[in-house]
Fold this protein.
Amino acid sequence: MRYRVIVEKGESSYGAFVPDLPGCIAVGETEQEVIELIQEAIQLHLEDLQTEGHPIPLPVSKSTFIDVAA
């Protein structure tokens, strides 16, 4: 499956979350690190859901860009 990941740049780190998997987050010092960590977090999150007998949420989130005047 392919899940949408949102990456946000903070003052001193990067954060990432998966809208379709509530609670699935990661924080890293670089963008590359947070991408690697969120991939691992997704895998662990899905494994936990399966272990507990919960259904695996389908990836349904979408995103788009909206242009606004500056």
